[in-house]
Write a structure and sequence with these properties.
Elements lengths: L1 H15 L4 H28 L5 H14 L3 H18 L10 H12 L2 E6 L1 E2 L9 E5 L5 E6 L5 E7 L2 E8 L6 E2 L3 E3 L4 E3 L4 E2 L13 H12 L3 E2 L3 E2 L3 E2 L9 H12 L2 H17 L8 H31 L5 E2 L6 H10 L3 E3 L5 E3 L1 H13 L11 H24 L15
Parallel strand pairs: 1-9, 2-10, 13-14
Antiparallel strand pairs: 1-5, 3-4, 3-6, 6-7, 6-8, 11-12, 15-16
Amino acid sequence: MALEFAIFRVEADACTWQESSRNLAAAKARAELLGAAASSLVYKRASRMAPRACLPAVLASALLLLCMVPTRAIAQQQIAVRETSSRSLPDAPLAKTDPENSAHEISLAEGSASVAGTVLDISGAAVPDAEVSLSHQDGTELHTMVSGADGEFNFTKIHPGPYLVVVNAKGFAPFVSEEFAVAAQQAYEVPIVSLSVATASIEVMVRPIDLIAAEQIRAAEKQRLMGVIPNFYTSYIYDAAPLTWKQKFSFAARGTFDPVAVIGVGFAAGIEQANNSFPGYGQGAAGYSKRYAAKFVDGRSSDFLTHAVFPSLFHQDPRYYYQGSGTVKSRLVHAVSSAFVTRSDSGGTEPNYSYLLGDMSAAALSNLYYPTANRGAHLVFTNAAVGLAGRVGGNLLREFLPRRMTTNVPANREQ
């Protein structure tokens, strides 16, 4: 009875621990061994005790033996059972993966289509180094690359959808293809990418001629020989803009009333005073004042008539155009002839009516304020000859004095 109870208890524990069949057999063998020992001990004690006391003694001995099983052995058996059960249990089934489906999902994520083409000019020749852009209809650039030596381009890993191809190359007009749709895994070929030669674009800034002339006048008014003597009427710009009649009068006023010119009149009057020229003016302060007034009027009337009045009437340019190059003879001829030949406002060459008539008119006006004894035709021609000689002499100085002696000379090509 005790043996059966021990065997039953071991079997119950084995079921609780989820032993395998092999471990259960080992447990039974150990239980039988213990049971045999217990039976032997019980038998010896039973033989000594009264028959009534046998049954309780046997039960107590069985319980004592079962409690004496080492706890460590039970723990080792539990660990062994667990390891065995873990090895005996089949592995959980793993999710199966399809290589083709995985590759398809990756290609969809990266883009599986491609767009290719060849950039050509109108003659069919390849255009290398062209900037090719793949974009949407709204102008959003998605990819950009440069065409190869043979003009080819190829955009890979493109997502399905509508696209445009835009091509820019130096010397060619921009090219924009028609919108096309690309499907998944499609190798799309752009049919025609032909670049035409760019149309030449020249930006021309048109400015009013009178505005240009005004700027040139302001620059000329800063020109002074040795930084002192006015040299306003010498043009170092061969193709200077023509002057309007208002500009001719303002330019003449600026030159004739320049402080240096007014001081020059004083020197000329002093020389006449010293030489007792035009004795009718007398000597002393009164004589000097009359001479100064006569020279002042001579100069102002001559300047306005030759530089403003007649040039406006005949549409002629009152300036002297500096040549600055060529032989000495050619420059000498140019300087002398400029007193007799001048440029028209339209750019042609004409007789210098403005100066010749202006000089004669100024000389004729001198009969109004010179002494009575000196008036007449002789005075007119004398003053006209002096004015003409002064014109020729001034032109020679303008032409042959070094250009660097004049300040604020604008840079210009020499003719």
